[in-house]
Sequence to fold (668 residues):
Amino acid sequence: MPTPPRDPDAPPFRSADGAVVLRLAVRNHPGVLSHVSGLFARRAFNVDGVLCLPVGDGARSAILLLVRADDRLEQLVRQLAKLEDVLEIRREPDGQRAFAAATAWLG
Amino acid sequence: MNSTGASLILTLLERQGIDTVAGIPGGANLPLYDALGSSRIRHVLARHEQGAGFIAQGMARVTGRPAVCFGTSGPGATNLLTAIADAKLDSIPLVAITGQVPRALIGSDAFQEIDTYGLTVPITKHNYLVRSAAELLEVIPDAFRVASSGRPGPVVIDVPKDVQTETIEVTRLPEPGRPDAAPPLEHDDVRRAARLLNEARRPVLLVGAGVIASGASARMVELAERASIPVATTLLGLGAIRDGHPLSLGMVGMHGAPYVNLLLEECDVLLGLGVRFDDRATGKASEFCPRARIVHVDVDASEIGKIKTPVLGLRADVGDALAALLPLVERDERRAWRARLAELRASSPLAMPGADDPLQPYGLVRCAAEIFGDEPIVTTDVGQHQMWVAQAYPFRRPRQLLTSGGLGTMGFGLPAAIGAALAAPGTPVLCFTGDGSLLMNLQELATAVEERVDVKVILLNNGHLGLVRQQQQLFYGARYQASRFHAEPDFAAIARAFGVRACSLGEAADPRATLARLLAEPGPCLVDVPIGREENVYPMVPPGAPNRDMIEGGRRADAAA
Fold:
């Protein structure tokens, strides 16, 4: 995925210390977001931001999650990995830039 | 071949080996029921969808294979929720197929419309809203694959009415869904686990439902015998090792025997097999097995490190892990450790007052076990009677005890017993229940009569929500609120009104003989047994306290000396 250019006027994106961005590849159907977002509330995980868009031919979506790199991160990743519609999870080292861009719109 | 969605569902279920389905018809699943007429699947009509869910659970718990229940949309689906959630917490492969309003009406608050998909997200392993009949070809086998793979669990398939009536041309039927292959073993980790066990001086195996689900009980006992390792089980692990085996400790935790909890205080290596370190088993988790290095084997990676941080975690099928571990574990007699176990067994046994009297809880459980020997399947409801059964019934084999462990659902026992009897014809099923629990799914007595199942309901009747009363006595200053039933129905009369043979044991001249005679007759029966109203289950670890803090008949047992 090409990295969108950084808007020079966007406010600096602030995140909690030690935040990381996870990138999920998921099946794209109407229920998948409720599976992913329901998990955060149900297991009391702190998730600071979510971005989700269909990718490629639309059969899959990419979800970026802004999460805290605390001692529960591994448990969060393992719980996400159990969801049938989550096909892949990896860290997105550059992912904070996406949230910085979104902050320009929402912040 | 042309097929409607409804017939396709039944064809695919038949190909999964499903021969019996429990359910209730309603508006949104009528096409499915219409198609049942030309299917060889036997339908068991429950009297409440929760009953249907637990009947299916009973079948699944006995066989280890996925079982199916049907419900309609709206209240049919909401009534199923408790049984589905129960299956999630106990890792039971359940496939619930619900009717839904036609696609065009979804989202319009139509009659009996509810967001079944949304409601079941947190209580299923996975769920589906089927959007076309063609999707069924993929969804039904996938649902069985998901329900039975790795750590089993429930799956919901929500099928709109017009998907059930949609006709499609089916050129080729899909292969039945089968469990995925188990994750590959990390052999280095197996070697490390063997080394930890070989170096251990005071090891214990902690055995949970995962051992039974994996069919690994015999291998687990082989490991225990090879290296002389005592075996403690969780509630759902009971039966994995036979009661009376010299290395069998029985149940750990809140109502475990004192010597079990005390032995775990001294253990130096704990091998957890298919367990999830539930708080009812561990007590205060941070003080569970305080001297032990923990090795944790579970097929669900998210369980490893969730509650207790192990020195070594193996994500593996327990049976695979044990097979690899066995040749690496040295034979050891562990005389000192076994002597310590014998010492604790003698000094801190499980007190079972009244064990010879069939009108007292322990005596009743023992008496029923003596009458039937090793043969029956045992279900329980939830509460004091459940713990008395867990403590006192001599379980001899895996899948002999069916009980609601994780969710602790009152109302589980009777419908689960019906399901067990359907799945194991010819095997008697004992359902131990309480007067609180039985009323929560009493209507299934009608199903038991209709199906002529060999279910023997043994009702421990104390006119209370007994375990609530006990907690109010012990932890709420004996301020009893809403735990006593002021109206007490005549359960034997109610059972007879359903067509179930029944008696009250309190009126019997020879309770043991009466019990034996009633239980020996085929078909369903109910035995109402009045028990002491203030009987408590001991020992009891207060919720949140470490397991060494056991209350024993009103006093605290001493911690390990």
